[in-house]
Design brief:
This protein is an all-alpha fold and 85 residues long. The chain is built from four helices and no strands. α3 runs antiparallel to α4.
């Protein structure tokens, strides 16, 4: 992202994302708790399952971050197009 896009993204993340996440907050909270519980269970099974669990968590977090950025950029692009009309 450009510096301007990054600044707008950070503003949106701080001021706008919470408003749009709010309706799903309870579901997100339960999902995070369940993911932590499952990760703990994998670590209890041994070193290799624990490593796989941590790696899976990292990959899912990376994917979620890129998806959030893509949605933001799509929304920004739509806003710019509407502003040109």
């Amino acid at each position: 992202m450009t510096e301007l896009q990054n600044a707008i993204y950070l503003y949106a993340q701080e001021h706008l994302f919470p408003r749009f996440e709010a309706p799903n907050y309870e579901t997100l909270s339960v999902a995070r708790q369940e993911a932590e519980r499952l990760g703990k269970r994998l670590r209890e099974l041994g070193e290799e399952p624990g490593k796989c669990g941590r790696r899976l968590w990292t990959e899912l977090e990376t994917q979620a971050g890129f998806e959030k950025e893509a949605v933001f950029l799509a929304g920004l692009s739509i806003g710019l197009e509407l502003g040109r009309s």
